Amino acid sequence: MLKRWPGNPLVTPEDVRPSRPDWKVDGTFNAGVARIGDTVVMLLRVAESVADAAAGEVRVPLLEPHGEGWRTTTRTFRTDDPAHDFSDPRMVRSRADPREVHLTSMSHLRVARSGNGTDFAVDDAPLLFPADRYERFGCEDARLTVIEGRCYINYTAVSDLGIATALAVTDDFTQVERLGIIHAPDNRDVCLFPRRIAGSYWCLHRPAPLHLGAPEIWIARSPDLIHWGEHRHLAGCMDRAWESAKIGGGAQLIETEKGWLQIYHGVDADQRYSLGALLLDLDDPRIVRARLSRPLASPVEDYERHGFFPDVLFSCGALVEGGELRVYYGAADRVMALGTCALADLWAAMGV
Amino acid sequence: MLKRWPGNPLVTPEDVRPSRPDWKVDGTFNAGVARIGDTVVMLLRVAESVADAAAGEVRVPLLEPHGEGWRTTTRTFRTDDPAHDFSDPRMVRSRADPREVHLTSMSHLRVARSGNGTDFAVDDAPLLFPADRYERFGCEDARLTVIEGRCYINYTAVSDLGIATALAVTDDFTQVERLGIIHAPDNRDVCLFPRRIAGSYWCLHRPAPLHLGAPEIWIARSPDLIHWGEHRHLAGCMDRAWESAKIGGGAQLIETEKGWLQIYHGVDADQRYSLGALLLDLDDPRIVRARLSRPLASPVEDYERHGFFPDVLFSCGALVEGGELRVYYGAADRVMALGTCALADLWAAMGV
User: Fold this and answer.
1) What pLDDT does B15 receive?
2) Which of B186, B218, B222 has its CB closest to that of A211?
3) Which of A97, A183, A231, A237 to mutate to test the interface with B (most CBs of B within 10 A)?
4) In the CATH scheme, what is the code of domain B3-350?
5) Which long-range contacts (CB under 8 A, 24 or more apart) does B13-19 make?
6) Which of A85, A123, A138, B305 lies 20 to 30 Å (CA to CA) from residue B143?
């Protein structure tokens, strides 16, 4: 259903300056998106790796304690080192303790701005760079939500302690205040609602449980955006193939006349990521009013099928403007792209 | 260090009436404990299974929707059914979808009372029986914490949606009010503090992440006991064998002159559960002041080594009275036992 923008991809790694001269940019994807006045702001996930590893070596980017804070460094492994397992190109694992892991790339969050929503200028420096114990392996997959005039940034804080969700806030996309971990591991794909409902703030979140249960979408409630409770399971995997293995939240919630629109992702048994749509009740978002049975979009274009991780569409931000749904999405964990559809067509497909 | 009570075990399955005539009690263990006036109250986990399965059959207890609520039922599987896997005696798994699971036992929470802290009379009926979507497989491992004059019960709500932590409150151990899910899956071993510190309520919790990280102890903060945030990693596994595989919270927090005392559990590579002790700063419980390097106790007695699951000591409740630490603990997932030690000896062993 999603019509690809002819100028896709919108942002590629070649458009982004690395944060260190000895690092290279592998991906610019999974961006949070917000309209701020005349500007469409993207907060890109920029994934970087060490540029100049010698043959027979793997060098990983890393955060290490430095004085009161943290700084980046690199660590070099020899690929003939029998103590480590290099079989997964995304990580280096200790053979003695499989929980001792280093990731081969590290992500930070970088601003890009556009007047027309399609031509983006990317900042030269990060807005939010990994800087604490919970971000040793990176900051990923930001969502932007304007609530009561401030722009909240929720993002995935990744470390050897687990994959958690952190919150930050900015008023100008220059200064950022970190507000701490709002969902303990293993929890990502958090999507905020842009206003209070029934007196509370709300979010979707996606626990990934170790024992029973599957990675699916839950909803929680908060008095202050910092402390969350009243957790409920909201939407699960379905028998239809495209969302049979796992699902998780995507874009920030969008208020429409039909309800709260959520663009989420569904994953099939072959790890192929498609986009889906959910509609939640305006007055009680714990009620699912409609769910699109087929994908809003699945990977078909070359930049969606081939990249860092193949066959991935993953949205962290969308806008509804002039009756049109504009879904910004990361494609194949490498580039940013845009797809649009008339809201009326979406409602018809959802039967509302 | 823990001196076993000569009258151990304190409570056994033989002391407890099943909740249905066709069910049997397999375990009475992992009880929360509180002193309420002259009475020591235990809230036992009572694990039950179906009594009368025929040869070649497995019958599982189950909650099913009934009208507006839920009721218990049983489901029978033939052990020669090729669609299901019966190799783990604790569960029946669908071979087509390993996430489709039934547990062979279901737990509820039952009150026992004692005037002297060692002779307990067990109620004939459950206090808190599984009754909602999040409790389809049972309610487990309660902790009792008296806060501002009310007794809060946090417990593990187990279902096919995951292992979550729920909160309830009672004033009389007759009526209970459920307060919902306070930690989404996979999260159990939650321990509350009995009063506000720096204006907030606090808890320890134990996320079990699917991807990175290990099952370890985190701490969180709340304005109201319902909504939790400001999550921080508090204590991890250690190189010493007895707590090398995982750790998790045990008893409710106990205020002492030296700090907040936490009796927790550590698990070794062979799934052997020992008891440990942590001391947290009185004014800022995010600071670990001391940690016992050796176990407070490890399974040695016959009732600790052999039961439903071998070699387990697991405390959900402890008291400090007259300079003595009294640790109530589940042994081998079957019975309740008591161990004591002089607080002065514990402080000496912890170096405080």
Assistant:
1) 95
2) B186
3) A231
4) 2.115.10.20
5) B13/B334, B13/B335, B15/B120, B15/B122, B16/B44, B16/B46, B16/B110, B16/B122, B17/B122, B17/B124, B18/B48, B18/B51, B19/B46, B19/B48, B19/B72, B19/B108, B19/B125, B19/B126, B19/B129
6) B305
Given the structure tokens 């049109």, which residue do they identify? A324
Cβ within 8 Å, pair B181-A232:
yes
> CB contacts < 8 Å between A and B, how many?
145
Q: Over the stretch B135-160, which tens digit does the pLDDT of each residue have?
A: 999 999 999 999 999 999 999 999 99
What spatial distance separates the first Cα and last Cα of chain A, rounded to whole Å? 16
**Yes or no, beta carbons of A229 and B159 under 8 Å apart:** no
Q: Chain B residues within 8 A (CB-CB) of chain A? A: 99, 101, 133-134, 137, 158-164, 180-187, 205, 207-216, 218, 220-224, 226-233
Which residues of chain B are within 8 Å of residue A212 when distances are taken between CB atoms?
99, 101, 137, 158-163, 185-186
Q: What b-and-e string marks burial along B237-250, b requiring 16 or more CB atoms within 10 Å of the CB?
A: beeeebbbbbbbbb
Nearest Cα neighbor of B276 from B262, B287, B288 is B262
What pLDDT does A183 receive?
Answer: 98
What's the CA gap between A143 and A220, in Å, rounded? 17
For residue A265, give the nearest of A120, A151, A157, A143 by alpha carbon. Answer: A143
Residue to substitute from B106, B210, B234, interface A, most A β-carbons within 10 A: B210
How far CA B267 is from CA of A12, B119, B162, B215, B239, in Å, comes to: 47, 30, 21, 10, 12
Domain map of chain B by residue range? Answer: 3-350
**Before A22, cis peptide (omega within 30)?**
no
Instruction: Identify all chain A residues contacting B162, using CB atoms and an 8 Å cutoff.
Output: 207, 209, 211-213
Q: Which of A350, A24, A97 is nearest to B269 (CA)?
A: A97
Residue of B nearest to A232 (CA): B181
pLDDT digits (tens, 9 = 90+) for A100-135: 889 999 999 999 999 999 999 999 999 999 999 999
Phi (first) and psi of residue A15, to 5 degrees? -85, -5
Q: Chain B: give the shortest CA distance to residue A214, in Å.
A: 7
| Secondary structure tally for chain B: helices H, strands E | 2, 26
Are B229 and A187 in contact (CB < 8 Å)? no
* Residue B55, min C-alpha distance to chain A (Å): 28
Helix (H, G, I), strand (E, B) or coil at B83: coil
**How far is residue A256's CA from residue A261's CA, in Å, rounded to a whole number?**
7
Reading across the β-sheet that carries B229-235, which strands appear in turn?
Answer: B187-192, B201-207, B217-222, B229-235
What number of other Cβ atoms are within 10 A of residue B221's Cβ? Answer: 22
- Gap from A120 CA to chain B (nearest CA, Å): 34
